[in-house]
Design goal:
Blueprint lengths: L12 E4 L5 E6 L3 H6 L5 H5 L5 E6 L2 E10 L9 E13 L2 H9 L7 H14 L6 E11 L2 E9 L5 E2 H7 L10 H20 L3 E2 L7 E4 L7 E4 L5 E2 L8 H11 L8 H12 L6 H23 L11
Antiparallel strand pairs: 1-2, 2-6, 3-4, 4-5, 5-7, 6-7, 8-10, 9-12, 10-11
Helix pairs in contact: 6-8, 7-9
Length: about 300
């Protein structure tokens, strides 16, 4: 199943190494934009002080900014669009640094790693937000600074925003078919992702994007691909982890147990679940409860559940 959306088109990128300890990856479609705004080197991007800091945790900072963007087929003429600049400061282990030296074109630094994840998803026909550029610079032997620049995912809407701001659009008998269509589309995306050998470790309502909600086949995309598992030994566990993570962020006031079971059935591609499937579903429910306990123990208040 390939998603018929330009957000699933493969990314053609250019690798640029202006200095020995520096590398840039540039989405070819955004090369002229980056030149216009002066993002032609790692130093220029890293020194950018405009926009709004929307998240800062340790040595990771996320900045939201508006830049003129090229036109998209489904978005009309060019104009200002929102972009997100994620900066990482990272101290490398000796093994990580040696790996970077042995494979200079490999995945080094959080920013480049996430950019490559976006490219991998799109190569497999999985829609994502738009990766614009990424870069890395080694400021010392064991110190790497990196960044990732992505474009806002409009016209997609985060499932979290729909649930929090428009819950009535998914409630009641009149919206049951719409909700079922959305859950089926999400389940198929998750199955396609896993069949492609990848699992986004934060597969939840915050990172799931939706478009054409009234359609029989809503479009699904993901953003924030910093944490992706490729280990084939974990493949059996992927649906348990992913669907439990998603279940935890689906409020019980909107999504019933029948909805959750339908989500799992759509993931399995079955109308009738076998004994092994039912056992796997019980593991998902158990994992969901475990996430809830862990979240409560840490004193976190999940927005999706309405907990105090």
């Amino acid at each position: 199943m390939t998603l018929s959306c330009n957000y699933a088109e493969p990314v053609i990128f250019i690798s640029h190494c202006p200095q020995r300890h520096e590398m840039l990856l540039i989405n070819q479609n955004y090369r002229q934009l980056l030149e216009r705004i002066g993002f032609t080197s790692f130093a220029a991007v890293w020194a950018y002080a405009g926009g709004e800091v929307i998240k800062k945790k340790g040595e990771r900072t996320v900045i939201r900014a508006k830049f003129p963007s090229p036109p998209e087929p489904d978005q009309g003429p060019a104009g200002d669009s929102t972009f997100y600049l994620k900066k990482h400061g990272q101290r490398l282990s000796l093994w990580q640094r040696l790996h970077c030296l042995l494979r200079p074109t490999g995945v080094c630094g959080e920013g480049l790693r996430e950019f490559y994840h976006y490219c991998q998803f799109r190569r497999n026909g999985l829609a994502t937000a738009v990766p614009v550029a990424a870069g890395i610079r080694f400021s010392s032997f064991l110190r790497a600074d990196s960044f990732l620049l992505t474009r806002d995912f409009a016209p997609f809407t985060a499932l979290e925003d729909i649930v929090l701001q428009q819950p009535a659009t998914l409630q009641g008998a009149e919206n049951q078919q719409k909700k079922s269509n959305i859950l089926r589309a999400i389940a198929r995306y998750a199955r396609h992702m896993h069949d492609s050998g990848m699992n986004q470790k934060d597969f939840n309502a915050t990172h799931i994007l939706l478009q054409q909600l009234e359609s029989e086949n809503p479009q699904v995309a993901l953003f924030d691909l910093q944490r992706v598992d490729h280990n084939p030994l974990n493949r059996f566990y992927w649906p348990i982890k992913a669907l439990a993570e998603l279940n935890f962020t689906l409020p019980a006031a909107i999504f019933s147990e029948s909805d959750r079971l339908a989500l799992f059935s759509a993931y399995k591609g079955k109308k009738s679940l076998a004994a092994l499937d039912r056992w796997q579903y019980r593991l998902i429910r158990r994992k969901t409860d475990s996430i809830a306990r862990h979240t409560s123990k840490r004193g976190l208040a999940p927005k999706m559940t309405g907990s105090d």
